Amino acid sequence: MKFKDLTYQRPDFDKLIAEINELLDRLEAAESEEVFFETNKKIEDITNKYNEMFEIAYIRNTINTEDEFYDKEMEAFYEAGPRFNQVDHRHQTIRLNTPYRKAFEEKYGSMITARDELKRDVFDPSIMDDRVKESKLVNEYNKLTGGARIEFRGEVKNISGMTAFTQDKDRQTRKEAFEALNGWFADNLEELDRIYDELVKVRTQIANKLGYKTYTPIAYKLMERVDWDIEDARAYRKQILDVVVPFTQKLYKEQKQRIGIDDFKYYDVPLSFLSGNPKPIGAEEVLVKQASKMYHELSPETDEFFKAMVEKGMMDLTTKQGKAPGGYMTYLPISKMPYIFSNFNGTSGDVDVLTHEAGHAFQGYLTRNVFPSENNIITSEIAETHSMSMEFFTHPWMENFFGEDTEKYYYHHVTDALEFLPYGASIDEFQEEVYENPDMTPAERRAKYREIEKKYLPHLDYDGNEYLENGGRWQRQLHVYNYPFYYLDYTIAQVNAFQYFVWDMKDHKEAWESYLKLCHISGKLATKKALKEVGLKSPFEDGTIAEIIPKLEKYLDSLDKEKIK
């Protein structure tokens, strides 16, 4: 069945919770392993029904944030969510205390119960109303940004629709596009500040109720970081500051010379080449056709996966008015299919979606029959490794997407990924500061971000733009609002993907087999152990990044300079 034909019906939340609690009573009182495992399976079946309806509503809501029906459906899910968190917590507690725990771990591994232990201390009935409030605030941010209407040269664009103009070869066009984009954020500054201020306060209140001083350890537990902590994060960020920042500043100086601009401003950063950034050869229909060919040739597994995605209509790719910004992959547990959402806008990012989000989706498709499904709950840094690595494994097919711009794409893809690392670290350090100092005013938060930004991104000259000079850039980063501390994970994954890129150029067969193994490991191993299992070095290990940079520099130097102008 195609996605558009899937039937949606709001679950009877009360009935589902009653059914799950009845099964949890049986699970708790189980007198044999057989009953325990059988009951656990029934609980998952019911939970999957709830999750399927949630995902359908969520996808359709993000496709059109102006659809009042699905907007109300999401509000209902946000209201009910904490109640389901409560039964999840009860399920986790039973698993931890059952006499069959050892048998469960022998059968399914120990990661599920390891995550149970992390979450044991981050739920209490007293925080249910706070979680409802948090969800509503997140939805406010999504609706506000998803409904953005930006007037630009006689047309009305959404946030994603402005991207191509911010990369235009004409400097005045880039400047005006950024002024229009940042103007919308500046006009909505008070609302954006209010939403985030309330989010920080409610999350801090949750932490206090649970016996924690700040929300940071709660976020780390909720992110299921079994084998790394905030000290690892700080040491890792220091690697970026010491090794990556100096190298990226060298790249920016080369870019400045390449595009012939002496007074390099923030609106010049997106233009990598004087001849224009690499652009894909066509729109959605053309790109999907080329992606089908690429995945057919890459491997039998990717061929089967992408054919299913196309045939079942499990993608909504092109930007349009009312569509939420950004891109994601999610999973429909009853349909057993991943779904890709994005905002094609005529830039090279369109192709990145067909590799990045498809990397997520491919892993989800490969492991669609994993049971219990909790063994397919992946830490975000591993999940993003699946996606970012796929971007590099597909490099040999990029000529089909970019034609004469292929060499430019190769250069832009690697340098853009390198330049992302300091930005990602700045967002993480900012969030750490925010939650460690929850009483900061919105103005103080923005000033703190600007201070951090200057450390990681010293090349940025905001040309007197008041909104940006006052530290507002982070407000475009939906993760800061929606997913606390989910951003450093992208940079960790990027370092892993760089390792695969270097490995793939040396021995494709060996690197691809390692990648498939990592996909199949899914959530069965903790991050550091999983990386070691497939032959990758931990990004947290001092020296890992320093070892990669020279190899990437050598690759960049090998590209045809005549085609990179």
Description:
The protein has 565 residues and is mainly alpha-helical. The protein is built from 24 helices and 5 strands.
Question: TL;DR of this structure?
Answer:
With 565 residues, the chain is mainly α. It is built from 24 helices and 5 strands.
Helix/strand layout:
Blueprint (H helix, E strand, L loop, with lengths): L12 H16 L4 H31 L4 H30 L3 H8 L2 H10 L7 H19 L3 E3 L2 E3 L5 H4 L4 H17 L1 H21 L6 H7 L7 H29 L25 H15 L1 H12 L3 E4 L9 E5 L4 E8 L4 H18 L13 H14 L5 H4 L3 H31 L5 H15 L9 H4 L8 H5 L5 H19 L1 H14 L5 H7 L10 H15 L7
Parallel strand pairs: 3-5
Antiparallel strand pairs: 1-2, 4-5
Helix pairs in contact: 1-2, 1-3, 2-3, 3-5, 3-6, 6-9, 11-17, 12-13, 12-14, 13-14, 14-15, 15-21, 15-22, 17-18, 17-21, 21-22, 21-24
